[in-house]
Structure formats: C-alpha cells, structure tokens
C-alpha cells in the first residue's frame, strides 16, 4: 500500500486528468495504489473466490459533481480465481474467471481522498 501522501498525490493527478481520455486509467492506478478496489471487488465476486484486481479495467458510466465532490459510477471488469491445492497432477488447474461489478467512487477535490463502494444491481 502506498503512503497516504503519495496516494493523495496519485488521486490528485487523476483529478487533473478528469475529462481526458486517460482519466479512467489514472483513477484505476490511483485506486490500486491505495488498495481501495480489492474489498468491494472481492464482495462482488460471482464465479471465483479471490479477486484479481491488478488488471481491472474501469469504465465511467455516470458522473456528477457537487459541493467539491466528484461522484462516479464505474463499471469494472476484472477476474477472480478459485485456488486449488496446486498439487502435481491436480486435474483442476487455476484459471481466471471473468467478473464485473459496478462501483460508486466519491473523490473529495479538496483533500484528494476517495471512497469506493459496491453498487448493488
């Protein structure tokens, strides 16, 4: 996990990119650096038992800004696995399973801090 000042800087950089083509990627990188994606994506799993968030992709579905807070609803495509014993000859090798979740991300512009919550469908 990244120190709080570095995490704030990463989120601040993502905020600077708001409206650009690279925003979703910068936001994803900042949220990964703060370890903010793992818990909600772990709760959203429908196929596996352990979320793999390192290669998650974010797509901004909706956005609104009010009182200095940028609120985003984002679709996230990621993967999960069901770890086995990984014994030699195990007939069920681990494979990545596709997952999807919708998250609500709130970023305070003044503090460059973020909260991430799973949206129930």
Task: Explain what this protein looks like in three dimensions.
With 121 residues, this protein is of the alpha+beta class. It has one domain (4-118). The chain has helices spanning 4-16, 23-33, 38-44; strands at residues 50-66, 69-81, 97-108, 113-118. Strands 1-2-3-4 form a four-stranded antiparallel beta sheet. β3 (97-108) and β4 (113-118) form a beta hairpin. α1 (4-16) runs antiparallel to α2 (23-33). The chain is elongated. It starts with a helix and ends with a strand. The model has no long low-confidence stretch (mean pLDDT 89).
Task: Explain the layout of strands and helices.
Layout: H1 4-16, H2 23-33, H3 38-44, E1 50-66, E2 69-81, E3 97-108, E4 113-118
Antiparallel strand pairs: 1-2, 2-3, 3-4
Helix pairs in contact: 1-2
Jot down its keywords.
alpha+beta; four-stranded antiparallel β-sheet
Rounded to the nearest angstrom, the distance between the terminal CA atoms is: 29 Å
Strand numbers in spatial order across the main sheet: 1-2-3-4
Largest sheet, in brief, is: 4 strands, antiparallel
What's the mean pLDDT score? 89
Rg calc: 16 Å
Order of helices and strands: HHHEEEE
Q: Pairing-aware structural class of the strands and helices?
A: alpha+beta
Short description:
This protein is of the alpha+beta class and 121 residues long.
């Amino acid at each position: 996990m990244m120190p709080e000042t570095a995490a704030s800087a990463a989120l601040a950089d993502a905020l600077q990119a708001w409206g650009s083509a690279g925003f979703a990627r910068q936001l994803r990188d900042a949220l990964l650096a703060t370890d903010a994606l793992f818990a909600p994506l772990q709760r959203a799993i429908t196929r596996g038992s352990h979320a793999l968030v390192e290669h998650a992709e974010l797509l901004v579905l909706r956005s609104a800004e009010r009182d200095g807070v940028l609120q985003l609803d984002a679709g996230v495509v990621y993967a999960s696995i069901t770890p086995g014993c990984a014994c030699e000859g195990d007939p069920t090798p681990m494979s990545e399973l596709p997952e999807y979740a919708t998250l609500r991300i709130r970023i305070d512009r003044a503090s460059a801090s973020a909260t991430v919550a799973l949206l129930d469908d």
